[in-house]
Design goal:
Helix content: 25-40%
Strand content: 15-25%
Radius of gyration: 24 Å
Shape: globular
Strand order of the largest sheet: 1-2-8-5-4-3
């Protein structure tokens, strides 16, 4: 467990209690490459969300807060009033870059562009740091078509490649769920309004649950396309049941 260092200017001052892997809080190699908490655009909702770049912005981490009312922490000889517990977990930066690729594809009508002209956001000035994360340039071909002119590379969004990449992510998630003996059947049926007393988890249950987890990091339209690509039918909320019929005796009295 690590205490966070000074917050960025756009965050609340103070300190946190967080659970994070060592690599997320390793000391910087240079004075200007400290770990950075910053807000970036959520790739699913488009709203501001807190993330963490480790030293040198080599890796991106998702920050999630567990909060209970009336909770505080004792840190040394002081009381930390912010009682949240932050969980820091690695996140593939391609998910956040994908948001900008899709946006640019719509605005530029499929034009090839350098990545540093695509991953720009006046509301989130730190978003270009996503391109510094290790292996991004090596893995960007999973979601784009590429052209190389001289020494410069140009990219544009490819839905076909992206769906293949997302399917691999779903399969990896299914493997992890099974490997950790996590039961998902009841959760899937609760989320999709399916009634029944089935106890065992089916392969569809795992795939559907994994799809739901991945969908937290992609736009809604792409989530629906992925559902089709996986061969899963889209479940809709059941229609409300009709009101109970009036007993025959009461109907007779009203005649």
């Amino acid at each position: 467990m690590h205490g966070a260092k000074q917050r960025p200017a756009d965050a609340h001052p103070g300190q946190w209690v967080l659970i994070a892997p060592e690599v997320a809080t390793d000391p910087p190699k240079t004075p200007d490459s400290e770990p950075l908490f910053t807000k970036l655009r959520n790739p699913s909702t488009g709203e501001a969300t807190l993330y963490l770049f480790n030293s040198g912005a080599q890796q991106l981490f998702e920050v999630k807060a567990f909060h209970e009312e009336y909770r505080s922490w004792f840190i040394g000889q002081t009381v930390q009033q912010d009682g949240r517990l932050l969980f820091v977990t690695p996140l593939d930066p391609l998910f956040l870059i994908l948001y900008y690729l899709i946006k640019a594809d719509k605005e530029q009508q499929g034009k090839f562009q350098p990545l540093d002209q695509v991953v720009l956001d006046s509301d989130y000035p730190n978003c270009p740091l996503l391109l510094k994360c290790g292996d991004v340039k090596q893995h960007i071909h999973h979601v784009t078509e590429e052209k190389e002119i001289g020494t410069q590379k140009f990219h544009k969004y490819s839905q076909e490649k992206t769906l293949k990449w997302l399917k691999k992510k779903v399969n990896q998630t299914v493997k992890a769920l099974k490997g950790n003996n996590i039961s998902v059947g009841e959760r899937v049926r609760a989320a999709t309004f399916i009634s029944g007393r089935q106890i065992t988890d089916t392969e569809e249950d795992y795939v559907r649950y994994a799809h739901g987890l991945i969908s937290e990091y992609i736009p809604e339209d792409l989530s629906k396309e992925l559902l089709k690509y996986l061969g899963l039918p889209e479940h809709k909320s059941p229609a409300p049941e009709p009101p109970l019929k009036m007993p025959a005796q009461r109907r007779a009295k009203k005649k």
